[in-house]
Amino acid sequence: MNTRDIDMLRGSLWDKIILFALPLALTGVMQQLLNAADVVTLGKFVGKHAMAAVGNNISMVGLIVSLLMGLSLGANVVIAQNIGANRIDRAHAAVGTSFVLATAAGIFFCAVGEFLVAPIFYFLEVPPSVVDMAKTYLRIFLLGLPAMSLYNFQAAIFRSKGDTRTPLIALAIASGVNIVLNLLFVLQCGWGIAGVAAATVIANVVSALIMFRALLKADGVIKLDFNALHVDKAELFEIVRIGLPAGVQGMVFSLSNLLIQAAINSLGADAMAASAAAFTIEINVFCVVNGFGQAATTFVGQNYGAGNLPRCKRATWVSMGLSAIFMQTLCCVILFFAENILSLFNSDPEVIRLGVIRLWYIVAPELINVFMEGLSGALRGYGISLTPAVITLVCVCGVRVAWVFTAFAHIPTYATLMAVYPISWFMTALVLVAAYFYHMKHLKPARS
User: Fold this and answer.
1) Beta carbons of 84 and 10 less than 8 angstroms apart
2) Which residues contact 423 (CB under 8 A, 6 or more apart)?
3) Which of 156, 155, 396, 146 is nearest to 254 (CA)?
4) pLDDT tier at 72 (50, 70, 90 boundaries)?
C-alpha cells in the first residue's frame, strides 16, 4: 500500500477513522476558505453590498456543487467496494469512467448555470443595489465548474483507497493561490467582485491540475491510464445509481436554502451580509461532520465489498461518536468567539448582531447533523443512496417551505427564519434513524 493509504479492512477503527476524516474535514475547510477569502476581501475592501452579492450566490452555487459532489461520492463508493472485494479490473474501469463523467458533468452544468443566471436572480428577488454584482460573480464563478468537478471526482478516487491527504495538499495550495490573487485583483487591479470570482476560478483550475498530476503518478489500482478513459456502462450505472441520489440530497438543502435566501433578502442588506458572513463560519462545523460522514461511507463501502458486516456497523458508530466529539469542540470555540470572528468580515454592528443570532440557531444544535450525516453516509456505503435522499427531500424541503409560508409570514423576523434550520434537521434525523435500522434488517449482499 502507498504510505498515505489506510487499511480499512483490518485492525483498529477509531485511529484510522480519525486519520481519514480529519484531512477530509480540513479539505472541506480549505474549500470554504476559497469562499471566505472572497467574503472577507469584499467586506473589508469593497463594502457590505458586495458581501451581500456573494451571499446571494451561496445557495445557487451550492445547488450545482452539491450535485457534482454527490456524483463524485458515487465514484468513491463504487471504487471502494471494488477494492474491498479485490475486483481490481472493475476498480480500474470505475476510475476511468469517473474521470470521463467528471469532465462531461462539469461542462454541462457550467453551460446550464450560465443560461439560468437571470431567471434565478429574478426568482430570488435580489435587490437592485446588489443584483448586477451578484450576476457578475456567478457568471465568472461558473466558468470554473469543469475544474471543480474534476477536483471533486479525483479527490473521491483517492479517498476510495484511504488517501485523504493528497486532496488536502492540493486544496491547500489552491487556497493560498486564491487569497493572493484576491488581494492582487482587488487592491492592485481594482476589479472588485469580478476579481474575487476570477481568483476562485484560477484556484479551482490549480487544484484540479495538481490532482490530475497525482493520478498520473499514482501506484496501483487508482493510477490514471489514458487507455482506460472510456465509459464502462456497468460502473457508470453504479456510480450514477449511488451518486445521483446523494447529489439530489445535497441539492435539496440548497433548494430549500434558495427559498430561505429569498426570505433573507426581504429583510435587507444587513441580513444578507450577516448571513453571508455567518455561513462562511458555520459551514466549517459541517465540514467536520461531513468528513466523518464520508469516513463512514468509505469504511462501510470497503468492508461491505469484503463481506464484513460487523465491521461495517462498528465503523458507522465509531465515526458518529468521533464526529460528535470533534464537532462539539469546534462549536464551543465558535460560539464563544462569535462576535470577534464575525468582525473579521464586517465591522457594522447590525451585521454582527444578526450574524450572532444565526450562529446560535445553526451551530448550537449541530449535533443533530451527526446523526443525519453519519447514517446517510453509512447507507451510501452499502449502496443505499435513494432512501436518505427521499427522506431529506420530504422532511427538509417540506418543513422549510411550510415554515417560510406560515411561521415566518406571521412573524417576519430574522430569528424566526433561522429557527427553521434545527427544526428541519430534527425531523429528518428521526426518520433517518428509523430508516437505517430498517435497512440493516433487510440488507442484501454486495454485488459480485
Assistant:
1) no
2) 399, 403
3) 396
4) very high
Tens digits of residue pLDDT in 314-359: 999 999 999 999 999 999 999 999 999 999 888 889 999 999 999 9
Q: Determine the residue type at 255.
A: L
- 166 occurs within a structural domain: yes
**What is the C-alpha separation between 36 and 52, in angstroms, rounded?**
13
CA atoms within 13 A on the CB side of 58: 31
Residues 6+ apart with CB under 8 A from 128: none
Residue of 185, 181, 57 whose CA lies nearest to 126:
57
Q: Looking at the domain assignment, is residue 448 inside a domain? A: no
- pLDDT, residue 43, reads 72
Alpha-carbon span 314 to 305, nearest angstrom: 15
Q: Is 346 contained in some domain?
A: yes
* DSSP string across 421-439: HHHHHHHHHHHHHHHHHHH
What is the residue whose three cell numbers read 477569502?
A: 37
Q: How far is CA 352 from CA 38, 194, 338, 344, 347, in A?
A: 18, 25, 9, 10, 7
Instruction: Calculate the average pLDDT of the chain.
Output: 88
Question: The cell 472485494 sits on which residue?
Answer: 85
Range of the domain at 381: 14-441
State residue 448's pLDDT score: 61
Residue with the three cell numbers 488517501: 163
Give me the mean pLDDT over the 418-424 stretch.
94
d(CA 298, CA 151): 18
Q: For residue 5, tell me if it sits in a domain.
A: no
> Residue 56 has what pLDDT?
67
The tally of domains found in the chain comes to 1
Tracing cell 460487523 back to the chain, one arrives at 310
Q: What is the mean pLDDT of residues 64-72?
A: 86
